[in-house]
Amino acid sequence: MNALRRYIDKIKPNVEKGGKFHFLKSTFEGFETFLFVPNTVTTTGSHIRDAFDMKRAMIMVVIAMVPALLFGMWNTGYQHFLALGQEVGLWENFWFGFLRVLPIIVVSYVTGLGIEFVFAQIRGHEINEGFLVSGMLIPLVMPVDVPLWMVAVATAFAVIIGKEVFGGTGMNILNPALTARAFLFFAYPTKMSGDRIWIAGLDKGMETVDGYSGSTALAQAAQNNDVLVNGIGDPLTTWDKFMGMIPGSIGETSTLAILIGAFILILTGVGSWKIIVSVFAGGAVMGLIMNAFGGNALMEMPFWEHLILGGFAFGAVFMATDPVSGAQTEKGKWIYGFLIGVLAILIRVFNPGYPEGVMLAILLMNVFAPLIDHYIMEGNIRRRLKRAKVQA
Amino acid sequence: MTEKEPLFSAKNLKLIREPLGHSNPITVQVLGICSALAITVQLKPAIVMTLSVIAVMTISNVVISLLRNMVPPRIRIIVQLVVIATMVILVDEILQAFAYDVSKQLSVFVGLIITNCIIMGRLEAFALSNKPWPAFLDGLGNAFGYGLILIIVSFFRELLGSGTLMGYQVIPDSFYEFGYENNGLMVLPPMALIVVGIIIWVQRSKDKELIEQN
């Protein structure tokens, strides 16, 4: 450790003003603060500071995503071998999925961080850690068979158009990871929806067992099937759906793994429990309303199934709670989350071309979050003014 | 004016140059956006649109400039509209006669040149108070400035969205065999807005004068 510290101190003068590599200052600082806690102290104003800076907060979210990621890797292998009709062990499933998922993660991080570094150099500010989270979220919301160059293009689009044009981390209107997914969904629809993309290798002419279908549970429900089945035609139990042994984007299938993540987020105070709870509440209310009307398989689906299928839980826990693009006021968080839940189910049920509504619901509410906050604050100001007048 | 100004004096040339760069009607004044979104999916309609706007713009600028001392101020807008509408109908008829396919593709957007704010804006701001020759140059410059952005946007949208330029395939088949795919988002209108946005971004980072002080 000391040797590392000495080495960093030795090369530091090179990047200071006047040094040979001054243009790399922000890159250097990025790595320095990554390795050591910065020793800067506050000189004016408030002297109480929390060591919990953005790097730590971001890492907490990444840790919270690990269960979903690990399960996603295992599920990738499980679904693949299920389609082949083979029974293999836990580790073989996991190893297969690991090899499929790792390249997507690497591409996402390399592209995104590369762009962030370049922008930080050009603009001469510090490198922000926001991408640590986005870079992990992007692979988790991709179908496993997505071509890697598309991941790179989508990541570049999300970082540049979704974030840097607004001024970088903390200034973005939309959630960057969802921007990446929405970009891919509209730009390359054949690779982002349908029955053949969710299982590794299925798209490339894999020899499957007879009658195999890779459609997701929601796609089946959208086609008005009452009994949801897995790839080889066995009906899915609620337990299967909750555990996530179903086709879907890499990280979205397991509600259990996501709830573990939610637990970590809430415990550390990084994610807002109000948003998570209200998204689920909104989804449940809308699901109940749909049940009351009935009519097709999606409307008659029990409301709790809506909450555990598709990307609902993942969106609620990891996407809606994004502190930058979500609502900031405490009351606003309830409204924001509730409307996400309501809209997600509404889009899911009534949009014929798209059996999943969570992505669009969250993006839409991201846009409205500042408006919600505005009215909450206006309301606060009015209430206080009224009180002041009464006393005067 | 006592001495006669040369035809291409510095002042007159500026009328052409300015709208191409830092008073560009689309990227700086943000006018005429709707048509820029609608007809830039492919290069060919964009070029035809550019030519149509150049014709309408320059001729109506000159006509209004000639009429400028005769038009009572209270009815100037309606006079301008009549002139523009006449020109637009002429252009539309000519397109239908000689370039029917493109005319079909452009559909209502030729007719909607009438409502293009750039044209009305230049008539109000320039032609009504200037002589015909400067008005002609101003019309030409602004129409070119508009067309330039249209062509840049449609170039990227057609190249990335359909893999073609002017209808000819330019992205080789071998790319597609390697798994390349056309970007479907490029064909949708939002992408035109984003491309225009990127052009504005690039222009502003090059041209520091455009950055507002606040």
What does this structure look like?
- Chain A is an all-alpha fold.
- Among the domains of chain A are: 2-35, no CATH class; 237-379, no CATH class.
- In chain A, 64% of the residues lie in helices and 0% in strands.
- In chain A, helix 4 (90-123) runs parallel beside helix 6.
- The mean pLDDT of chain A is 84.
- Chain B has 214 residues and is mainly alpha-helical.
- Chain B has one domain.
- A two-stranded antiparallel ribbon of chain B has the order 1-2.
- Chain B is globular and about 65 Å long.
- The mean pLDDT of chain B is 85.
- The chains are: A mainly alpha (392), B mainly alpha (214).
Q: Gist?
A:
The complex is a heterodimer of chains A (392) and B (214). Chain A is mainly α and 392 residues long. Chain A is 64% helix and 0% strand.
For the record, give the distance between the C-alpha atoms at the N and C termini of chain A, rounded to a whole number: 64 Å
Largest interface, Cβ cutoff 8 Å: A-B, 13 and 12 residues
Radius of gyration of chain B: 19 Å
- Average pLDDT for all residues of chain A: 84
Instruction: List segments of chain A where confidence is low: pLDDT < 50 over at least 5 consecutive residues.
Output: none
Number of distinct helices of chain B: 11
| Secondary structure category of chain B | mainly alpha
Q: Globular, elongated, flat, extended or rod-shaped: what is the shape of chain A? A: globular
Largest sheet of chain B: 2 strands, antiparallel
Tell me the number of structural domains of chain B: 1
Cα distance spanning the termini of chain B = 40 Å
For the sheet with most strands of chain A, the description reads:
none
Beta-strand level of the residues of chain B, as a percent range? under 5%
- Helix % of chain A is 55-70%
> What is the tally of beta strands of chain A?
0
Assembly state (oligomeric): heterodimer
> What is the string of helix and strand elements of chain B?
HHHHHHHHEEHHH
Dominant shape of chain B: globular
Beta-strand content estimate of chain A: under 5%
